[in-house]
């Protein structure tokens, strides 16, 4: 179902692994879409009691935004991305809501 994350559910516990160790788990558009889709799924699942978000590899949890992706965007695209439902504000909102599960 996902390319850049691994979603595991077991007995009320969900583990989401950001799986881009070659990029230090940097969040590009696709990975952010997948993470938000997974969190939306978790939010609808009443059996979920705990969500653990982790990163693959041994160097970093998540290095932040994918700088390579951002370097290929112009200023307008970056601003649109940051204001979009996939941007930081939406991500923060979903994580905040998930924290109350």
CATH superfamily: 2-enoyl-CoA Hydratase, Chain A, domain 1
- What string gives the helices and strands in order? EEHEHHH
Query: Strand order, biggest sheet?
Result: 1-2-3
- End-to-end C-alpha gap: 23 Å
Supply the CATH architecture: Alpha-Beta Complex
Task: Describe what this molecule looks like in 3D.
It is a single chain. With 101 residues, this protein is an alpha+beta fold. It is 42% helix and 18% strand. The protein has a single domain, classed as Alpha-Beta Complex (2-enoyl-CoA Hydratase, Chain A, domain 1), CATH 3.90.226. It has helices at residues 29-44, 67-71, 75-83, 88-99, and strands at 5-10, 13-18, 50-55. Helix 1 links the parallel strand 2 and strand 3. Helix 1 runs parallel beside helix 4 (88-99). The protein is globular, with a radius of gyration of 14 Å. The two termini are 23 Å apart.
